[in-house]
Amino acid sequence: MNMMTDAVVLEQQRQTSQERPATTGRRLGEVVLDVRNISLAFGGVKALTDISFDVREHEIRAIIGPNGAGKSSMLNCINGVYQPQQGSITFRGKTFSHMKSRQVAQMGIARTFQNLALFKGMSVLDNIMTGRNLRIRSNLLLQALRIGPAEREEIRHREYVERIIDFLEIQAYRKTPVGQLPYGLQKRVDLGRALAMEPQVLLLDEPMAGMNLEEKQDMCRFVLDVNDEFGTTVVLIEHDMGVVMDISDRVVVLDYGKKIGDGPPDAVRSNPEVIKAYLGTSH
Amino acid sequence: MGFFLETLLGGLMAGMLYSLVALGFVLIFKASGVFNFAQGAMVLFGALAMARFAEWIPGWTGIESKAFANVAAFLIAGAIMFAVAWLVEYLVLRHLVNQEGATLLMATLGITYFLEGVGQTFFGSSIYKIDIGMPKDPVIAFENVFQGGILINKEDLYAAIIAAAMVAVLTVFFQKTSTGRALRAVADDHQAAQSIGIPLARIWVIVWCVAGVVALVAGMIWGSKLGVQFSLATVALRALPVVILGGLTSVPGAIIGGLIIGVGEKLSEVYIGPLVGGGIEIWFAYVLALGFLLFRPQGLFGEKIIDRV
Amino acid sequence: MLYRENGQFKTSYRADQQIFPIRQDRIAIILLLVVAFAVVPALASDYFFRAILIPFLIMSLAALGVNILVGYCGQISLGSGAFMAVGAYGAYNFFVRVPDMPLVPAILLGGLCATAFGILFGLPSLRVRGLYLAVATLAAQFFADWAFLRVKWLLNDSPSGQVGVSALQVFGQPIESAVSKYWFCLVLLTVIALLAKNLVRSAIGREWMAIRDMDVAAAVIGIRPMYAKLSAFAVSSFIVGVAGALWAFVYLGTWEPAAFSVDVSFRLLFMVIIGGLGSIMGAFYGAAFIVVLPIFLNQFLPALASTFGLEISTAGVSHAELMIFGALIVWFLVVEPHGLARLWSTAKQKLRLWPFPH
Questions:
Q1: Under an 8 Å CB criterion, which residues of A touch C?
Q2: Tens of pLDDT along A146-159?
Q3: Nearest CA-CA distance, residue A254 and chain C, Å
Q4: With an 8 Å Cβ cutoff, are C221 and A122 in contact?
Q5: How many helices (DSSP H) and strands (DSSP E) are in chain B?
Q6: B16 in contact with C at a CB cutoff of 8 Å?
Q7: Which residues are CB-neighbours of A181 under 8 A, at least 6 positions away?
Q8: Which residues of chain A have a CB within 8 Å of the CB of C119?
Q9: Integer-rounded Cα radius of gyration of chain B
Q10: CA distances from C111 to A142, B99, C307 (A)
Q11: Residue A113 falls inside a structural domain
Q12: Quick one: average pLDDT of C272-291?
């Protein structure tokens, strides 16, 4: 990431924003995810220090910040991959100090990963089908016999997954092992797998990293469509300032594990702390 | 009480021998990330080479001195182990860089079978003796403190001392020399080490050579004690729990793990064995290591594996 | 040319999801089954049955079980011999102690014993992985070695340490001749292979593969690693246990614990790796390779030696076998680490185009 370019973009955006309304026209609901005082440390390294922010239903919340700011770690805390030393996370009124991954999935929070984390040995179709796992009811014996209810259930889930495949426009690759696909398509499969979980909240970790302009536009379109059609709340980590400022309702800025900004894109973009972080003055 | 101490000491010394074999595993794993199942076969091969050459050399050279035969046999066997190490790197490891653990494990298993076959073809498959002048008679110590004294097997004692010396040398090698540092870099990440100019192939040859010498010394000691026979290869299987207990990447772990396993085996055989039918030695070490693993999955001194997502 | 999929369009998900979606594959499998069930029994000699076919069938079954654990779920296991032993001795105890126990239920109960054993010794997989897990499974192997040697109750207090069964029959039909044994094993193998194939292409199979490929991501999706791993151990050890019971009852007749030593575990692992990890067909290829190889060498080596005018003793042959075996394993791993199954699917890819170049 080129920090100088981002600073330039911020500057340009500030100038153009004066000509454009600052809202996105989305109807935001109540607070659905509330993160309070999360602190996370690995040995001596403090990844997160006293982070608090909230996410409203149906909004697109962006988390931005320089590399190493702790953004992925934050998502990992929400998902139960890391256990924070302090703090709590409240989802739909239920508060937890430690999230368990399966519980989080059952509550309706899905995510994509910065480094993909796809199941390299399986095809695209199978990867996305794993996202349906929580909803599959047949037990081992029925699956072994593959008759009647087990077969019908498999077909039902196949239909749902096929709709996701259509939505993401990857029909031609459904039987290809994901390891053989180019990076941009793999990212779509990652998104598809998260969507298969029918999530209420979607955590996207740099979904557009490494993409060219066209691919980014496609990905933006998918994210916006998901938010529009299903009302899915989106928490988005992203480095591309243009995308962030364009599509998000509110932005959280992290730097070195601390929160240095929180608010609508306009407010954040003129926040001197944020600008300093991206320009990289001495810490 | 005297009997207990005797068993304890016996266990400690047996444990030292296990450590010696375990060291070979740890060395190769530290440097190349390869879990070398063939270590047992290497111990056997080294011992076979030493035994047969010690037999043949007086015939070839006409020199009757046993000491000369032993030393010459050791050197020749050492050279053979170096050759084996080089061949293994050249023919096998080089082509399997970055394969997953199971594949490498299978490859070393294949090498095990191969070495066993070759060893038996060239050196024969009967039981052979290694006689390096280790005293076989036991010594009775501490007669004033305990009634009847404690029986200490002198051979075991010497073996333990040799093993301890070997371990000390290796520890210094790893921690203090630049080659040792290079080895640790290679163990961490083959490709990264390669990219900063560490000669991967040469490092692996060095490591396998060192492991080969360790195997030879272990083979010499065990062979002198038990006679060189096929079952020596299974010694490796006995040493595995030691490696697991101590941690795959830790030299001190191999020592301490060996001592714990040695003592545990002897004590359990004496005190628990009669209750359940005897012969529990074959699995006790494994179950003990297993128990430890459940509390510390990386072994006593191993490195914790952190997943990055 | 022959293997073109052109024109074979699927109009329903059910059709797309069947086990053999390509018509040529379906024809091939039907032919294979016909040959296996009808042609081979008519043509094969007694020796061929006893030395090659029956061991091949039983070992394929065992390799299938091991492949589910190692290939699909990614848990290295060096203790498969122990699971076979538990299946064998479990079936034996049910067979001789329960009056009028029929054969097939006894074998299946033996499999269930192996399942319990497998789940118990699979528990470490929840804490450790990779090589540490491999060594933990060796604990199962050595424990079983000891138990079937020393715990007399398990042997029905047999004084010699050996146990045996005789006069096997199914639904009144005796299983004495080579052909009847062959059919018995073939039927069991076909049924279990079908069930296994169904499992690996369903949700549970995907769970296993997800755990194998990236267990952290699998947890985030909501897969329970504990359930997935233990179910893999359970299913795998059931199949391996049944294979063990068959090996003991049908192939050996009388046996002692050494029949299921750590050597067997290694052999099974070789079969799975050479055949191809994560492939049901791979189990068959691997088993065929490992069963046939020693026999082939046994016949071939003395003949080869005599063309050079050399004498080779039986000891020499067995040493040479070890060497060639080891060398072949290494060669295979270097050349095609994904095993014969991958070689076969590469060949099929080429067949899709043949005789055209591209």
A1: 79-81, 101-102, 104-106, 110-111, 113, 117-122, 126, 129-134, 136, 138, 140, 143-146, 150-151, 154-155, 158-159, 162, 193, 197
A2: 888 888 888 999 99
A3: 24
A4: no
A5: 12, 2
A6: no
A7: A124, A173, A189
A8: none
A9: 20
A10: 19, 34, 48
A11: no
A12: 89
Asked if the interface predicted TM-score (ipTM) of this complex is over 0.90, the answer is no
Tell me the pLDDT band of C258, cut-offs 50, 70 and 90.
confident
Give the pLDDT score at A191.
94
pTM: 0.86
Q: Does B102 touch chain A (CB under 8 A)?
A: no
Is residue A23 scored above 60 in pLDDT? no
**Is residue C99 pLDDT above 80, yes or no?**
yes
A222 versus A20: which is more confidently predicted? Answer: A222
- CATH pick for C49-353 out of 2.60.120, 1.10.540, 1.10.3470, 2.40.10: 1.10.3470
Q: Is C323 on the interface with A (CB under 8 A)?
A: no
Contacts of B308 in chain A (CB under 8 A): 115
pLDDT at residue number A4: 54
Residues of B in contact with C211 (CB under 8 A): none
Nearest CA in chain A to C216: A81
List the domain range (segments joined by +) for residue A210.
1-108+199-283
Q: Domains, chain B, ranges and CATH?
A: 2-295 (1.10.3470)
Asked if the model's pLDDT at residue C248 lies above 90, the reply is yes
Query: Residues 205-244, chain B: which have Cβ within 8 Å of C?
Result: 237, 240-241, 243-244
pLDDT digit string (tens) for C303-355?
A: 877 777 776 777 777 788 888 888 888 888 888 878 888 888 888 778 777 77
Which residue in chain B is spatially nearest to C143 when comparing CA positions? Answer: B283
**Which of C132, C326, C334 is opposite residue B112, by nearest beta carbon?**
C326
Same domain, A99 and A215: yes
Residues 115-144 of B with CB under 8 A from C: 115-118, 120-121, 125
Number of Cβ within a 10 Å radius of residue C205: 22
In chain C, which residues have their Cβ closer than 8 Å to the Cβ of B304? none
Contacts 24+ apart (CB under 8 A), B291-297: B292/B244, B292/B245, B293/B244, B293/B245, B293/C124, B293/C127, B293/C128, B293/C132, B293/C136, B294/C124, B294/C127, B297/C127, B297/C128, B297/C132
Q: Which of A198, A226, A258 is the last residue of a domain?
A: A198
Chain A residues close to B306, C-beta within 8 Å? 42
d(CA A100, CA A79): 7
Q: How many domains does chain A have?
A: 2
Among the three residues A160, A179, A198, which one is the final residue of a domain in this structure? A198
pLDDT band (50, 70, 90) for residue A5: low
C200/chain A closest Cα distance in angstroms = 9
Q: Which chains touch B (3 or more CB pairs under 8 A)?
A: A, C
High-pLDDT (> 90) share of chain B, %: 0
